[in-house]
């Protein structure tokens, strides 16, 4: 597929995916979902891609869904558009590679829902966050009502969803919606440093961290803990990543995880 909206670049194991509809503030439309779905399918088994960073072009990360595309939809079409976005964001969420949202500007509505489907979020000091759907007589459609309370707690989530209040980066950091805040000119540099740091870790361990945390959070605690133990044990033994990491520690050298891939 030829991409009209996504601009993916791969360097040193880090895929930077820039959403580029700046005249529409990168609003999400059907074409975006088609391209993102195609891209995720391409990279899911690509070992050259170790970390994914998603950002926006211009003054917005993503300022919401494309209202011009949505306005004439009937109920069935609206449901279908919601399910399409949910499917793509769930695929992103379950990708067995770390995904970081580098939020450079407005992350509103569907844009915030996209950011929440990533594993964690960095933000510019100028970034703005909100779920303004109630201003249009709507509710979030891409699982924002489900991810937001899981990330920030029930009270803060309901406040943001019901008031459509737009908050800045400092408040987003305070409630746990983002994990790091940087000056605008440093956002990508600092985010790439985080991504580069992750690429130095045991790749199988990083993959299992994502799997165990995301699956376990929806499970009974004891069952989730048993799953953790099974995956912990899977990294032991000759030829396994954990063996190399522990041996390197005892031998006071850097681990060579590549030989275990």
3D structure, described in words:
With 261 residues, the chain is α/β, with parallel strands linked by helices. The chain has two domains: 6-199, 2-enoyl-CoA Hydratase, Chain A, domain 1, CATH 3.90.226.10; 203-260, Lyase 2-enoyl-coa Hydratase, Chain  A, domain 2 (Orthogonal Bundle), CATH 1.10.12.10. The protein contains eleven helices and ten strands. The strands form two sheets. It has a six-stranded mixed sheet with strand order 1-2-3-5-7-10, sandwiched between helices. A four-stranded mixed sheet has the order 4-6-8-9. It is globular, with a radius of gyration of 19 Å.
List the helices and strands and how they pair.
Layout (H helix, E strand, L loop, with lengths): L5 E6 L2 E6 L10 H14 L7 E6 L3 E3 L4 H4 L4 H20 L4 E5 L2 E3 L1 H8 L2 E5 L3 E3 L13 H9 L1 H10 L3 E2 H6 L5 E3 L4 H13 L3 H14 L4 H13 L7 H10 L11
Parallel strand pairs: 2-3, 3-5, 4-6, 5-7, 6-8, 7-10
Antiparallel strand pairs: 1-2, 8-9
Helix pairs in contact: 1-3, 4-5, 5-6, 9-10
What is the overall shape? globular
Overall tally of domains:
2
CATH homologous superfamily title of the largest domain: 2-enoyl-CoA Hydratase, Chain A, domain 1
How much of the sequence is in beta strands?
15-25%
**The CATH topology of the largest domain is what?**
2-enoyl-CoA Hydratase, Chain A, domain 1
N to C succession of SSEs: EEHEEHHEEHEEHHEHEHHHH
Distance between the termini: 30 Å
Q: How many helical elements? A: 11
Kindly provide the name of the CATH class of the largest domain: Alpha Beta
pLDDT < 50 runs, ≥5 residues = none
Number of strand segments? 10
Radius of gyration: 19 Å
DSSP helix fraction: 40-55%
Mean pLDDT: 96
The chain-level structural class is alpha/beta
Under the CATH scheme, the architecture of the largest domain is Alpha-Beta Complex
Please summarize the sheet with the most strands.
Answer: 6 strands, mixed
Main sheet strand line-up:
1-2-3-5-7-10
């Amino acid at each position: 597929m030829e991409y009209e909206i996504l601009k993916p670049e791969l360097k040193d194991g880090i895929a930077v995916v820039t959403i580029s509809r700046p005249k529409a503030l990168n609003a999400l439309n059907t074409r975006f979902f088609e391209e993102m779905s195609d891209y995720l399918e391409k990279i899911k088994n690509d070992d050259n891609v170790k970390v994914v960073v998603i950002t926006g072009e211009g003054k917005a990360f993503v300022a919401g869904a494309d209202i011009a595309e949505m306005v004439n939809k009937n109920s069935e079409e609206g449901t279908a558009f919601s399910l399409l976005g949910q499917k793509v964001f769930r695929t992103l969420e379950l990708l067995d590679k770390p995904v970081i949202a580098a939020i450079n500007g407005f992350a509103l509505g569907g844009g915030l829902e996209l950011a929440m489907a990533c594993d964690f979020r960095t933000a510019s000091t100028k970034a703005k966050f909100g779920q303004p759907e109630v201003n249009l007589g709507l509710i979030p459609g891409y699982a924002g009502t489900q991810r937001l309370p899981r990330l920030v707690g029930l009270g803060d989530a309901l406040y943001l969803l019901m008031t459509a209040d737009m908050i800045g980066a400092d408040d987003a950091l305070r409630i746990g919606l983002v994990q790091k805040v940087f000056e605008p000119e440093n956002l990508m540099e600092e985010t790439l440093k985080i991504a580069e740091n992750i690429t130095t870790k045991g790749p199988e361990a990083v993959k299992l961290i994502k799997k165990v945390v995301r699956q376990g959070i929806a499970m009974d605690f004891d069952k989730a803990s048993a799953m953790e133990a099974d995956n912990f044990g899977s990294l032991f033994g000759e030829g396994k990543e954990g063996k190399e990491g522990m041996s390197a520690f005892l031998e006071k050298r850097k681990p060579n995880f590549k030989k275990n891939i």
